Amino acid sequence: MDIRSLRYFIETARLSSFTQAAEALHVTQSTISKMVRQLEHEVGAPLLVRDGRRLTLTDTGAVVYARGEEMLATLRRLQLEVRDTQARQRGTLAIGIPPMINLLFTPVLKAFRERHPGIALALSEDTGQAIERQVAAGELELGMTVLPADATLALQAEPIASYPLYALAAAGTFQRSRRTLRLKELAALPLVLLKDDFALTRALRNAFAQAGITPAIAAQSGQWDWLVEMASVGIGVALVPEPFVHRLADERLHAVRIVEPALAWDVAHVWNGRYLSHAARAWLAVCQDVLGLKSPRGSPRPR
Fold first, then answer.
1. Could you say which of 42, 62, 186, 275 would form a disulfide bridge with 57 (CB–CB 3.0 to 4.6 Å)?
2. Confidence (pTM)
């Protein structure tokens, strides 16, 4: 069965007009008529009932129309997957990475560039919640955020890593020998947090609400280094993930782990759930190799 004839027939049936189908497909009306007749000859039965300007499907036509749409959809998917396969050799992958999370992925970036030098990575740095919205809207194919992601967005999430949170405060705020701090004790301390559009701040506010705590927020900023500087001079306590405690702490600061309950910095990949290109799967495979992550459920690892 000729695919072009099938496409012309489906467009004609969808629009109920040879003229409109010809305009939509940028061919002449006689070409459309010829292709539909050719398809009818191949099938061995009429597909359309021509009643003046009105077109209706015959019983056979209805079957060919329904199955033909499935065939064309499969063909479009095939073409897309072929292009994506080629894109593993060349192309662009758009990924959103929030501040600080990006520091975890330097080894992944290096390995990806070595394995897939023809794929350009378009890295977008923004807050976790902004990245979630961009991924849901299709502006980014992959993003990273701090869980839990926004439940109102159509996103799939796959955890990357989980690290405990520490309270970072000016030396003398806590007893020198202290190593832990109960979550409820934060209620009595001024806090310096990232702005509300950061996914970590969303997670912290959820934790405070669950614990019945109303935090005393002394200041908020979009810059991690400024939060740490404010903590170092005693303006408030900063809440920092474990991997960065040693990077940020110095003789002016004291870090204690938050417990009862422990708070975690749960980092995850998010995507819109509709489709993952081969370039995106290649990225996830490199993440798996470098960081020991699992491939997304239902997404076979590229070879």
1. 62
2. 0.65
Give the Å distances, CA to CA, from 211 to 83, 127, 148, 214, 257. Answer: 50, 25, 17, 9, 17
DSSP 131-178: HHHHHHTTS-SEEEEESSP-TTS--EEEEEEEEEEEEEEETTSS-TT-
Among all chains, which residue has been given the structure tokens 């500087």?
229
Question: How much is the mean pLDDT over the chain?
Answer: 87
Percent of the chain with pLDDT over 70: 93
Q: What is the mean pLDDT of residues 136-151?
A: 92
Q: Give the number of domains in the chain.
A: 3
Q: Residue 217 sits in a domain of what CATH number?
A: 3.40.190.290
Q: In the beta sheet, which residues pair with residue 180?
A: 257
- Structure-block tokens of residue 50: 């021509």
CB atoms within 10 A of CB 249: 18
What 285-289 contacts at long range (C-beta under 8 Å, 24+ apart), as own/partner pairs, is 286/108, 286/111, 286/112, 286/115, 286/116, 287/105, 287/108, 287/160, 289/111
Residue for token digits 């809207």? 137
Q: Is the CB of residue 20 less than 8 Å from the CB of residue 10?
A: no
In percent, the amount of the chain with pLDDT more than 90 equals: 57
Given a cut of 90, whether residue 86 has pLDDT beyond it is no
Domain membership of residue 300 (yes or no) is no
